[in-house]
Amino acid sequence: MLAAAATAEEITVLEMFNVWIEHGMKRQDGNSEIRRAFNKDVLPRIGAKAVRQLTEDDLRNMLKAMVTRDVNRMAGQVGKDIKQMFDWAEKRQPWRKLLSEGNPAALIELEKIVASDYDMSDERERILDASEIRELWTRFESMTKTYANAPAETKYGVPRPLQLTSQLALWLCLSTLCRIGELLMAEWAHIDFENRTWFIPKENVKGKKARSRNTSLPCRPSQFKSSSSFMK
């Protein structure tokens, strides 16, 4: 599982992550989202550090850096994933021995790291009202046009709009109330152009109760045609 040459003192967080993601984690999206999050915010900061030397301050500072970017929900999720990884490692060698003096993730209190006005217990209650959805559309349109019309020599100073495929994915999620993971697993075979429905196989649905049945949602097939870059 690990390179034979690596000694206990040299085993890094990156090496532990690679084994955990391969043998200790199995999510519906094939672990793609957790890989993306760790590659963006975790591994660049602590990946090269030896597991034995990792401290709670290392983890806290990493998560606070995310909060500074105003991505509180992502910081909370990454914090939970880190705790899960260390809980898994604490039960297995060689990491169990490396964590014999304490699990640094167990000391992290996420509610004290996220912004003071961020309610972790209410994070899924927030919805966009009609005016906010219209404003989102307007901002996408404005940013896209501004960037497209900017002279080539000034584009570097103009905010780059969200990629069109990402915009379309967002509108599909809002209009169908699907999860992003369900959308990313959509296939052309699931789209009924004649009856204007999207079939979601039960194995693509999150949650044990939801996965007991298939789902069909009304949709505009033209939206999927425009989103062909993430369709199979």
Account of the 3D structure:
The chain has 232 residues and is mainly α. Helix content is 46%, strand content 4%. The chain contains 9 helices and 3 strands, in the order ααααααααβββα. The chain has helices at residues 13-23, 32-46, 56-68, 72-90, 95-98, 130-149, 164-176, 180-184, 221-226, and strands spanning 191-192, 197-200, 215-218. Strands 1-2-3 form a 3-stranded antiparallel β-sheet, with no helix packed on it. A hairpin with a 4-residue loop joins strand 1 (191-192) and strand 2. Helix 3 (56-68) runs antiparallel to helix 4 (72-90).
Summed over residues and divided by their number, the pLDDT gives a mean of 86
Distance separating the two termini? 33 Å
- Helix count, DSSP H or I runs of 4 or more residues: 9
Q: What's the main sheet like?
A: 3 strands, antiparallel
How do the SSEs run, as a string of H and E? HHHHHHHHEEEH
How much of the sequence lies in strands comes to under 5%
How would the global form be characterised?
Answer: globular
Biggest sheet: strand arrangement: 1-2-3
Rounded to an integer in angstroms, the radius of gyration calculated over CA atoms is: 21 Å
Q: How many strand segments?
A: 3
Task: Give the structural class.
Answer: mainly alpha
User: Could you name the ranges where pLDDT drops below 50 across 5 or more consecutive residues?
Assistant: none
Helix content: 40-55%
For this structure, the quaternary state is single chain
